[in-house]
Amino acid sequence: MNLFQPSSSPVHSVSFDVRDRGLLLADGVFDTSLVVRGQIMMRDAHIDRLLDGAVALGIPLQRSQIEGAMDQAAPPESSGALRVTVTRGAGGRGLAGEVSGGATILANLTDYDVSVPLPAVHVQESEILRNPTSINARHKTLSYTDNVVALRAAVSSGFGDAFFFSPGGNLSCATAANVFVQLGRDIVTSPIDDGALPGVIRNWVLERGYIGEFVVSERSVSRSDLLAADRVFLTNSLRLFQPVSGFEATHFEPLLPEGCEALRSQLIGR
């Protein structure tokens, strides 16, 4: 077997079975979390999501395995973005090929500066529709081709991100973030049935029920809702809260609703 990888780096190279189904078939799940001074933000929620994804794909995985990988990759006082990848492992050829061993677990911490909030981003609508019935929409699987293609198309057109919509015409999510829409005194975010990924920060905000004095809830967001929004913002475990300045030709106030900064400070321990 020959391996040609011009971009390989000794710093990021490990012994790896090239029969791994994660590499060959995107047969696995992953999670990204924020590490601040040795503390993995919302650690249990991230572990739970990885375990839920592994169960959905039928990959045997123990909580202790994830905990050990996280602790080894993010030692005390470290900070950055922690990515944990779990694949079914190495196996034979074909979709139903037998796995020769247990799951493969990769954990890596990279630099990420959370001290400065991200600027507002202008987004376009992706030509790709989000399939709410797909396991890829409900779990963070390794199959991210739609997301990659949509983001690259947006950037090449002068935008910073893209929004996915469901076949029914409702807003689903951004390429790597959930979307919240402020309509008057209400803030709403798309339900799972419209293709929204159940993100860790999204779920945390929904459980709280409020951002400042705004009531937060989950409901379908139509295009007309989005175009009529006062403010729009994104959430994920690294960006935390990022304002959206516009959608296509429609512009929004490029600021976060009052209360987001307090939540951000609470998350990062400030």
TrEMBL record:
Which UniProt keywords are present, listed alphabetically?
Amino-acid biosynthesis, Branched-chain amino acid biosynthesis
Gene3D superfamilies (UniProt xref):
3.30.470.10, D-amino Acid Aminotransferase, subunit A, domain 2
One Pfam match, by short name? Answer: Aminotran_4
Listed InterPro entries: Aminotrans_IV (IPR001544), Aminotransferase-like (IPR036038), BCAT-like_C (IPR043132), BCAT-like_N (IPR043131), Class-IV_PLP-Dep_Aminotrnsfr (IPR050571)
Biological processes annotated in GO: branched-chain amino acid biosynthetic process
User: Which Gene Ontology molecular-function terms are recorded?
Assistant: branched-chain-amino-acid transaminase activity
Q: Which domain of life is it from?
A: Bacteria
| Annotated metabolic or biological route of this protein | Amino-acid biosynthesis; L-isoleucine biosynthesis; L-isoleucine from 2-oxobutanoate: step 4/4; Amino-acid biosynthesis; L-valine biosynthesis; L-valine from pyruvate: step 4/4; Amino-acid biosynthesis; L-leucine biosynthesis; L-leucine from 3-methyl-2-oxobutanoate: step 4/4
Question: Which reaction(s) are listed as its catalytic activity?
Answer: L-isoleucine + 2-oxoglutarate = (S)-3-methyl-2-oxopentanoate + L-glutamate; L-valine + 2-oxoglutarate = 3-methyl-2-oxobutanoate + L-glutamate; L-leucine + 2-oxoglutarate = 4-methyl-2-oxopentanoate + L-glutamate
The EC number on file is 2.6.1.42
Q: What does this protein do?
A: Acts on leucine, isoleucine and valine.
What family classification does the UniProt entry report for this protein?
Belongs to the class-IV pyridoxal-phosphate-dependent aminotransferase family.
PANTHER family found in the cross-reference section:
AMINO-ACID AMINOTRANSFERASE, AMINODEOXYCHORISMATE LYASE
Name used for this protein in its record: Probable branched-chain-amino-acid aminotransferase
Taxonomic source organism? Hyphomonas atlantica
Upper lineage is: Bacteria, Pseudomonadati, Pseudomonadota, Alphaproteobacteria, Hyphomonadales
